[in-house]
Amino acid sequence: MQSSLAERVTLLKEMALFRELSEPELEQIGSRLHDYLLAANQLLYGAGDRAENFYLVADGLLLNQEIREGRRVGETTLETGDAFGAGALLAGGARKAAVSALRDSHLFYMTRPDFNWMLNQYPRVAGGLRQFSMGKQLKGEVDFDWLEEGEKVFYVARKHIGYLWFRLTRSMGLAILGLLAFLFAIGAPSGSQFYWVGGGGLLLFGAVGLGIWEALDWRNDFYIVTNLRVVWLEQVLLRSSSCTEAPLANIQSVNVHSSLMGRLLGFGDVIVRTYTGTVKMPSVGDPMNTKHLIEDYAARLKKESRHAKHESIRQAVRETLGYAPEAEVQPAARSALPLIDREERFSLFKTRTIQGDTITYHKHWFSLLSNLFLPTLFFIGVLVGLPLIFQGMPNSPIGWLVSLAAVVAPVAVVLYRILDWQNDIYVLTPDSLIDTEKKPLGSEVTKSAPLANVLSLENHKVGLLGLLLNFGVVRINVGDTALDFESVANPVQVQQDIFARMEALKVNQEQGQVEDERRRMTEWLRVYEQERGRGGQAPGRQEIK
């Protein structure tokens, strides 16, 4: 099978890696691509093989298996529009993965000399390939235990290294001041040398500490794009932790904003907008390439949804016409069931319970204990001070009443606040979110929102206590408002529970729509066959006599 130059250019235009190139430039690259047909179950290359070519998937489905020390450590699928094989060419080493075809596939490949020509001729493409290869290496540094079944990671990145150097200028400034203090100490009077040396030492120590803190803080922030969502993980060392995400299906636009410093150093902010919410990814390296990647994956998700509907209708037509159904290998399907099997087995104050298909969250036990601290302290003080009260008012009814009131009042406050804590609940059902705040013997406020209207999710753990005790707030952006699940335990898990339910609802809705379409199409064909069996003639009218 020999493709035309126009077909190769068409594929390049749809890929984020080449989105910034002009038509003549795409034609130059396309002219150096060669066709290769890979039959189903055939190996393209194995781990340890010498890297010779760079590949693009023109059509088909391949399996990429990561191999380390002879063991498989991960696998992903490669679909139409995916580029692969650049990492080993850039590093100059052997392949670290084995790639084989899951079904008959059509590939374009570029030889090593042509690949090197492309890198030299188009620095933007070279930068995008290096950024993408670095993202694959970063996958091992991120804990992906929050991924849903069938969810795969496309892209991982940190803030640009230029941003780190920019932040390190503060520590460099302190170090320079410390060195200047040492220089002043040389010419200073003997009585003041100690102060100059001590001050310079403190400045240098602060510069080293600040530099280490900036480097660790930079390493803790990640931008992640999966086949379902865009995620920003941010951790400020010893201060806070947050996760902001938006489903790919909800993305309306992706914008880029760069300051003068960012343009000089090669980084900028990528702003992902949903209907009303935003996910801001600050200081991303090569922000235009990241923008095109997100747009590409969002478009691919919509394309896959349309393809699935088309295939379902096609199979319905084949069944109606009496043809045998076709077996086709597809990428791993998303599960329609949320992953909610992580219920707390035991807890003094249970903060997450599952009853049937409903998950109920209470505020973290620290929120309860902090509210019980003062009345409990007062109660202890009363017990300690009771002998003094009896000494002042021996055998006095007033003394007994005062003592009883002093004991009962804090106990009543403790019971009230425990009931208040139990009554404040957040509920997740298969199709809605419910926030209920109920005061004992008082008012009750309930807010709810359909899961189908959720546009984006974020969670925040603020302060050292929030990080150590693992509690925080989960914000659910719904239309022009938001629901806040405040002081919940393990906010990351709560957020993933909600996302899993959102995906389950979406899958069920899509399946329902497809089934409705199948039924309509089947009925349409059945009527068509009936009419065709009548010879295509419309029944004549009966004359009214």
Task: Describe the protein in words.
It is a single chain. The chain is α+β, with helices and mostly antiparallel strands and 545 residues long. Among the domains are: 1-141, Sandwich (Jelly Rolls), CATH 2.60.120.10; 163-218; 352-500, PH-domain like, CATH 2.30.29.30. 46% of the residues lie in helices and 27% in strands. The chain is built from 14 helices and 23 strands. The protein has helices at residues 5-13, 23-30, 86-91, 112-121, 123-138, 161-167, 169-187, 190-219, 260-265, 287-320, 365-392, 397-423, 463-469, 491-533, and strands spanning 34-38, 43-45, 53-59, 61-68, 71-79, 83-84, 97-101, 105-111, 153-157, 222-226, 229-236, 240-247, 253-257, 267-273, 278-285, 352-355, 358-362, 425-428, 432-438, 444-450, 454-462, 471-478, 481-489. Helix 7 packs antiparallel against helix 8 (190-219), helix 10 (287-320) packs parallel to helix 14 (491-533) and helix 11 packs antiparallel against helix 12. Mean pLDDT is 84; it is low at 331-341 and 541-545.
Give a brief description.
This protein has 545 residues and is of the alpha+beta class. The chain has helices at 5-13, 23-30, 86-91, 112-121, 123-138, 161-167, 169-187, 190-219, 260-265, 287-320, 365-392, 397-423, 463-469, 491-533, and strands at residues 34-38, 43-45, 53-59, 61-68, 71-79, 83-84, 97-101, 105-111, 153-157, 222-226, 229-236, 240-247, 253-257, 267-273, 278-285, 352-355, 358-362, 425-428, 432-438, 444-450, 454-462, 471-478, 481-489.
